[in-house]
Write a structure and sequence with these properties.
Blueprint lengths: L7 H25 L3 H10 L3 E3 L7 E2 L2 E2 L9 H15 L4 E3 L10 H10 L3 E2 L2 E2 L23 H21 L3 E5 L3 E2 L7 H17 L6 E5 L9 E2 L4 H11 L3 E6 L9 H10 L3 E6 L16 H17 L9 E4 L8 H21 L2 H9 L3 H12 L4 H10 L6 H7 L2 H9 L9
Parallel strand pairs: 1-4, 4-5, 6-7, 7-9, 9-11, 11-12, 12-13
Antiparallel strand pairs: 2-3, 8-10
Helix pairs in contact: 1-13, 2-10, 2-13, 3-10, 5-6, 8-9, 9-10, 11-12
Length: about 425
């Protein structure tokens, strides 16, 4: 098994070559905006978990076109995330999907992750696929299923996922159910909700002391008529009935077209019920595209509500919510795609930190719509990339991770070590 460590000296050499132009760009912007140093400090603390299921090439039901050099096991996935984290210093966590990534030797996996400075974020269960040798099928749902034996199997699986998480030092479980119906008449909505709630209650009661459970919603797919946890209202309903350890998880791709996600985020935060995030971007549906590639202004507006709402509740931006990427890479190198996603998240967060909140409040009080809009757009239109690069530099990363990745031909090296025909588990 190979574990590609990046030489410190290579990063230093890279940084040296870019230092002068970086300094010029950073000094210019730091002099032009208030609180640049504070923003850099917050960026340094902010970590985004990388999904274990998205380190290989993604695909659609029509095909999959591998790049080569994909991680063949969990150890290699951790090594890939270690590589990302060494470059951007913002990817210090992994979110595992079970059974795609069952740790065979948890203590060794935990030690390997620690070696890379990586911790275990929320664990994800999977009752949306049948696994080889599985006794009962999830074809007609899991927690909503009319057969109590299927529901029992799904509950046991979630409890097993919690057990794996405990061994790794995780403290949250994300439950995404594909349960729902494809045709009118297939399901009694109320009964499906009740059965699902009862199963969630059992899983909830198996949560260790300081654990949280995130109930992820999704509008449609694979079910196309109804989804049993279909929107934030339903998720909030489950989370409220479950209790204080249950929260809603927002995946940016899981809404009906044009939903106002920033408003959803704001209200969930107000209720103390926002637990975690799956970042991605989309043009049409749950496209799982690179974060910030299609709607960067929306991403900024979401971060604007996150910062405002978390500050209102005295929350710690870095630790009080679960920040995760949930994307799929069909045509790009997965590691390059993830570097781009993390960069987009950091930029959106930095811009939200820059918003002049006093000015915004004043504009709102005066019903000055133009000034309110200008205040937000001022922040959004400010190029804060030098602040993000400075945060990386101060924490030992590379000034320009993508450039480093390409200059050092890291994918070619991975292909050399792992081969061209490797396939990662996951999407
Ligand atoms: C479902 O579309 C989802 O967003 C859930 O988070 C899953 O765990 C993940 O994608 C992978 O299928
Ligand atoms: Mn998701």
């Amino acid at each position: 098994m190979m574990d590609m460590q990046i030489e410190r000296s290579a990063i230093e050499k890279h940084n040296q070559s870019l230092l002068e132009s970086h300094r010029r760009r950073f000094d210019f912007i730091a002099a032009a905006i208030p609180g640049a140093d504070e923003i850099v400090k917050k960026l340094i603390d902010f970590q985004v978990a990388i999904p274990s299921w998205a380190l290989g090439t993604g695909g659609t039901r029509f095909g999959r076109f591998s790049e080569g050099g994909e991680p063949r096991n969990l150890e290699e996935k951790i090594s890939d995330i270690g590589l990302l984290h060494a470059l951007n210093r913002s990817s210090g966590a992994i979110s595992l999907h079970i059974p795609w990534d069952i740790p065979s030797d948890p203590a060794a996996i935990k030690a390997l992750a620690a070696q890379h400075g990586i911790r275990f974020d929320a664990m994800n269960s999977n009752t949306f696929q049948d696994q080889p040798g599985q006794a009962l099928s999830y074809k007609f749902g899991s927690f909503q299923h009319v057969d109590k034996n299927v529901r029992r199997q799904a509950i046991e699986h979630n409890i097993e996922v919690i057990r794996h998480g405990v061994e790794l030092g995780s403290s949250a479980l994300t439950v995404w159910l594909s349960d729902g119906s494809c045709f009118p008449g297939q399901l009694n909505f109320r009964e499906a909700f009740q059965r699902t709630l009862e199963c969630l209650q059992e899983v909830y009661s198996a949560l260790p002391e300081h654990w949280k459970v995130f109930v992820e919603y999704k509008a449609y797919e694979p079910n196309f008529y109804s989804t049993t946890v279909g929107d934030w209202g339903q998720s909030l309903l489950y989370a409220s009935k479950l209790g204080p350890k249950a929260f809603t998880l927002v995946d940016l791709g899981h809404h009906l077209p044009n939903a106002n996600i920033e408003q959803i985020v704001s209200l969930l935060l107000m209720e103390g019920k926002l637990g975690g995030f799956h970042f991605n971007d989309s043009k049409y549906g749950d496209d799982d595209l690179t974060v910030g590639s299609i709607k960067p202004y929306q991403l900024f507006l979401i971060f604007n509500e996150l910062v405002e709402g978390m500050d209102a509740r005295g929350m710690n931006h870095a630790t009080d919510l679960g920040w995760m990427i949930d994307a799929s890479h069909n045509v790009k190198d997965p590691l390059e795609d993830l570097l781009q996603s993390v960069e987009a998240i950091m930029i959106g967060y930095a811009q939200a930190l820059l918003v002049d909140r006093a000015k915004l409040k004043e504009a709102r009080q005066a019903n000055d719509v133009t000034a309110a809009q200008e205040t937000l757009q001022d922040a959004f239109r400010t190029d804060l990339r030098p602040l993000v690069a400075e945060a990386r530099l101060r924490s030992g990363g590379a000034i320009a991770p993508m450039r480093f990745f390409r200059d050092e031909q890291l994918r070619k090296k991975l292909i050399g070590e792992r081969g061209m025909k490797t396939i990662a588990t996951g999407l």
